Amino acid sequence: MRQFQSLLATFVMLPFGAQWAMAQNTGSIQGTATDPSGAPIYGAVVAVETAGGSRNMTVTDADGAFKISSLPLANYSVRISAAGLSDWTAENVPVSLNPESSPLKAVLEVAPEVTTVTVGLSEPEVAEEQLNQELKQRAFGVVPNYYVSYENNPAPLSAKQKFHLGLRTLVDPTTFAASAITAGIQQAKDSYHQWGEGSEAYGKRFAAAYGTVGTNLIITSSLAEAVFHQDPRYFYNGQGSKKQRAWYAVESAFRTKGDNGKWEPPYAGVSGAIAAAELSDLYYPGSRTQYTLLGRSLMFHFAGLVALNLAEEFVFKKVTHHRPEVQSAKAPELPEGSPVPLIAVDGLGARGVTAAQTVTFVLANDLTLGGKIVARAGDVASGEVDPANSPSDPNGISLQRVMLRAGSVNVPLRSSPARGAAGPAQYKELPGSGKVVVTMFVAQAVQLPTGE
Q1: Residue 169's pLDDT band (boundaries 50, 70, 90)?
Q2: Which CATH code for domain 335-447?
Q3: pLDDT reported for residue 7
Q4: CATH code for the structural domain at 14-107
Q5: Statement: residue 16 has pLDDT above 50
Q6: Mind spelling out the 3-state secondary structure of 82-151?
């Protein structure tokens, strides 16, 4: 009987012995992360990794504390990352078997600002070089095609350069030829009959036609663009589907690029067109109401721009001589559908969504593009819990308006790699930390500044 009781006790204690043995073969790494002032860092990404590549992760809590448990006994490298701060690293950190052992104390320094020094031409010199190239561009080798830039990163023109561009167009032989043809057509159709017939009448029609070109070039494309700090050129796109390119061309007629590089309403184009129309009323015969004068001028202005932009986008590049052969490199672009691993800091845990309607994440790993880091581990993202989120899905969460702040750029994220594919984002618990990681995907291609 005693032998049976002893055997039974052995079987009962066997699982506990195995658990005790396992506990003796695993331990934890814990510590705190603070900034140089001693303030705790909330949401810093903590990654521990063995020499063999085994990796575990967590994030710090509101007190800056972290703990990763159930780690096999080994030495680990530790890396702690947070937005705006330099990474803190430590090598050969042993796993602790004693929960009361001294924790790591990581102090993350403020990340130094990166200053980009460009060796070469200054921006005005680049603009001058590009302008000289544009002044060689001729469609069919004859017609000036100066007001289009095929550069991917065109430099803004100075006021002097805008006037130079306008004057070169005004005195080009083809401008005189176009005015002569216009006057001939008007004479043949007896337009502005008050001027009559004959060489004198033709001269008046020619002077009026050439004057209209001149007022549009000097007032609209030079003076107004200089005053409003806007660029008179069309910026060739050439990217995307035909539909996308056509929309870009049409849209460019109703917006213009400022000297600051941003798209703006066409203040210069509209004000210049109105001023040129008022001036033309001084030398064209007949009477016109202000409504007719301004309405027709703006209608022809925008309709003409739409037609010209479409021709620039789809036709003129093919027949333009002396256009730039080699374009400057495009800004790096984070492709649509790129995976983005995020660790939930607040609003989402192993048991699902908390009462919060907003979930805060941090980027789990560096995002790289062409070997360069475009977003750092620890960069912050946030999103809203979709009201239609189903609590019955134990490992899924429906989020909307998720945005990652990568340096100076906002990167929109979605739950699936394919556009239009609906479904909740799936998450899983990080071993030994109680935190969860969810993989989101870049919702649309994002162009990154060259300095990022």
Answers
A1: very high
A2: 2.40.128
A3: 45
A4: 2.60.40.10
A5: no
A6: CCCECCEEEEEEECECCCCCCCEEEECCECCCCCCCCCCCCHHHHHHHHHHHHCCCEECCCEECCCEECC
